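Predict the 3D structure for this chain.
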Amino acid sequence: MKKITTTVLVCVIGLLSLSTSVAQTLSKGSIIGNGTFDFFSGKEKQEFGSSSSFEDKITSFGFTPWAGYFITTNLGVGAGLNFSLSSAKDDSGDNTFSETQITFGPVVRYYITEGPFVQGYFGFGSQKTKITSGGVDLPEAKESVTEWQAGVGYSIRLSDTVLLDPLLGYGSSVHENKDADNKVTVSGFFIRVGFTIILIAP
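Done. Predicted structure below.
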């Protein structure tokens, strides 16, 4: 029992030391670079004018690089890209959708205490959609995209300058094709795992 207690105590002290070093390094003036891979699962609602609408299940895989500057201790702001590939299928299975999306916008990360953080992203961009209906490929469609994402994560130190950042969040995006009077709303949860590199640490 004493050995188990000692082991747990050592682990707790190690985690506290880890978290403290993260907080101290990411002080005012720190500059970071970040790259993450994510998996998204949610619902896609398609609306065609005011006449009809239907919902699909959608999954996507994405890559999100961004860079930030800590304007004060624990609060970093920056800009990033969100690149994703997704696929969806309606309930009948007759229609499938393959989508490629890229957006750009501001990123904010705030460390609540040592280690855990909250992060938000708001982006603008475009998407290309390939639709197959009844085995026939339809002309590729282009849409404008507005999206937001918010999540909670935890920074784990791997070295003096590299952090592992697992994150769980929720996001929503609106896709509009004004020429076709088509609007698509996508929302759901995502899991993201990435690395933060501390480029400058005052």
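The first helix runs from residue 2 to 25.
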